[in-house]
Amino acid sequence: MKDRLKRFFRSSQSLSGSSTQPSASVDHLQTKPYDTVLPQDKSSALSIPPTTDSWNEALQKLSIEDQEKVPETEIQKEDNDFQDTWRVLENEKRGNILDWISSTPYEDHHRLAKTGRTPDTGRWIFEQRNFQDWRSSKDSMIFWLHGIPGAGKTKLVSRVVDGLLDNAEEQKVVYFYCDRNEELRRKPKEIIRSFVKQLSITHDQTMIHDGLIKIYDEKRQRGFLSRGLSLEESEDLLAQLIPTYSRAILVLDALDESEESSREGLVSYFNRLVEQLCNLKIFVSSRRDENREKQLEMKVSVTIEERDNRHDIERFVKQRISEDEKFRASPIPAELQTDIVRVLLEKSRGVCKIATRALQLVLCSTNPLTADILVFFVCQDPGTETSVAPYVDVQFILDSCPNLLIMDPCHTCRLSHLSVYEHFEKHWSIGMCHGNAAKVCLTHMLGANNRQSPRYSATAESVFTYATHHWFEHIRKYECYIGNAGGNNIDPQLSLLVEKFLGSVEESGPAYRSWCTRCEQMPHIPIEDLKPFSNPMLAICRLGFHHVPLTWWQSKSIDPEQTNEASNSLLALAILSENKITTQRLLSLRADINRPLDGLLGSGSALGAAASTGNQEIIKLLLSKGAKVNQKHTGGIYGNALVASIASPNGRKATQLLLDSGAEINQELNCGIFGSALAAAATRGGPKATRLLLQAGANVNQGLTSGNYGSALAAAASTHGCQDTVKLLLSSGADVNQVLTWGHYGSALAAAACGDPGNIKLLLDAGADVNQTLVSGLYGSALAAAAYSQRYSVKSLLDAGADVNQKLTTGLYGSALATAVAKQSADKKIVQLLLDAGADVNQKLASGLYGSVLEAARARTRPELYEMLLDAGAKKSQGSVKNIASKADKYESQKE
């Protein structure tokens, strides 16, 4: 204490300009006890004349007031960096320093927060065991008060602040009220500054901590190059000021209204404070938030429930009745007062529930909700497993959510503005919203045949349709939000409902099978992947569930090698759903990562399934677990994983990853519709994907032995809108007359004739032989391919010199004219175009299914084409139509 008074003496001396020594003052303290009472006006100490007696008097006054206001144990605390020294300053400088630290009028905000608070409300929190434990514990800890919007959190916080301030002699209480409508009150820097300001002054506001004075003076000497304390400086000061008190309590209201971008940093700072400092209590209020729950390392929390506020609401209603009675001629009977309180309590709870359910459902709905669906959903209690008939109408719901929820002329309900969505998205757990929606959907489908009333029946079908389409989407998003929040606390009721709906691991239940049957005509649901419907594990994996049902994943009866009717395994289905957790679980059950998937519509392999989705995380997971990047498929439409990636719009995100992992770019494939990665790129990926593979070393003239095309150039030429890809391949050295030994076409020009006519000119300009003899394909020549496909291509090739009577050695028809008339829905204009070009009706065919054009006509086409052929010369050499018919019949009988 002597050292402290010496410092005070010197500082006071410097302020007054006196050269008086402090020794007399010290001697005085040695002879006078602390309890010598002098006038308690600290400010007068600054105007004392510089005499020894005056200094003695000032020091004596200081010692007495310090003894009363500041515990000696606090004054004696000292460390190397921050001494526990308090100083008296003149009002002006003290005010300047405090305003420089923070200008936030925190006391005004507290008065505003408690304005209108009904007397004696909110005291229930002091009776909470959690609150009492937090308050009495010697450990530093965080208390989190949370509740839905409008639950009265700020009023309750103001009650807590008042209660703590009533015992201010035992502790230092500082507080701050965040407000999203005031920018300063949202910033963590201003929150911490305000706490520093409140901790840096004594209870009576007359003394200020010496550490703040030093920092202020240093900033002033440098000309206040910064306007105030930085966030880092404020955090350091707060951490140093807290230990100067025997106990410090920080109260922060509406954490969820603080600046979102820096909120996590503020929470982390609070966590560090309670870890590093002793006897610190932090009280935080906010809306319920699973992410915040995970971040806040608190030992206790309290949710504001309806039962907690019940007595507060009752007191409020009674107070208003009492106030209104002043203006009534006669008092309200006690019995009527009781009824009024009871009805208002019941209605207030109902309105709150209805509004909350409505807003939550609209917030998480995947499609706009019609009024009847919304009405049904808000009347259901997600906590029960029974559906009830609607008991409110849409207008009641809209009145419960004024200015938040609107209904358009089509009776579709939506939030009134994007800002409303953004607000509730930030302050509600979207995962919980999806979980509740899923529970209502499942409950309704499980009891779909239970029609309780005509009103129920009127909306049942529309709700049933919504549930059919969206129940699994709600569950998937629920699990996603739970996972992102870092938790595994799955709602057990939701898990049980999913299990009831699906049946058992071994055999699906009737509700699930009924749902599958209804979904067969719904294109957005991958229903083919769920066949046979008797196996619900197919749905678990393909729909992307990884937590529910909880018991199933622990069951020893799950066979990871099960497949669906398309030969896709559970592992492939989980990968197609892009569910990494489910994939990991199946791998942990020792699912064969390189198992061939032989089905025609299968993915070929697990890696092929992952490559088709483009999910790089899952691809990396599979490769790390031993998936073979160059495994050749024995079934499916791709042939290998690289082709699966190239051929799928989403898959191309992972093409480079597969190449970097060693994928063989020119691998000869055994199955699939493409034949090579470059052919897949040419027909599905466009110039960008094609260029990527060419730069990576793809062989532009690779002859293919599987697939539909025979070469990459033929693949591009057959595809509409691929002129740029054709040009790229030609400029990269593609042989325009390459003889193809595999595929539907036999040449690139024949492929163009069947596909995009715009590619014919590109190929002809590049030197394509219009009469090239083909050794493979369905048609035998480019003209025959055009005759089967489109008139414009026929004309283009004839104009380029195509031989209309070229004898074909391969294909199904034998000549261009036979091809034209053999088509099931023959184009008379193409037939006429060929006849006008000199096509020989009587030509003997050396290949194909028919011996002559007339036989082809008799077997395949309409009778009216006979007249066209007869007029072209058939009558002279082969007689009447009757003879033609009889010869054709004889030919058919010989084939049999």
TrEMBL record:
Source organism, top-level taxon: Eukaryota
SUPFAM superfamilies linked to this entry: Ankyrin repeat, P-loop containing nucleoside triphosphate hydrolases
ANK repeats, residue ranges: 602-634
Keyword Flavoprotein: no
UniProt-listed SMART domains: ANK (SM00248)
Residue ranges of every copy of the Nephrocystin 3-like N-terminal domain listed in the record: 120-287
Keywords from the named record: ANK repeat, Repeat
Biased composition annotated in UniProt, kind: Polar residues: 41-52
Region (Disordered): 1-52, 875-896
Signal peptide positions on this chain: none
Protein name (database record): Nephrocystin 3-like N-terminal domain-containing protein
Low complexity biased stretches: 11-25
Coiled-coil segments: none
Pfam families xrefs: Ank (PF00023), Ank_2 (PF12796), NPHP3_N (PF24883)
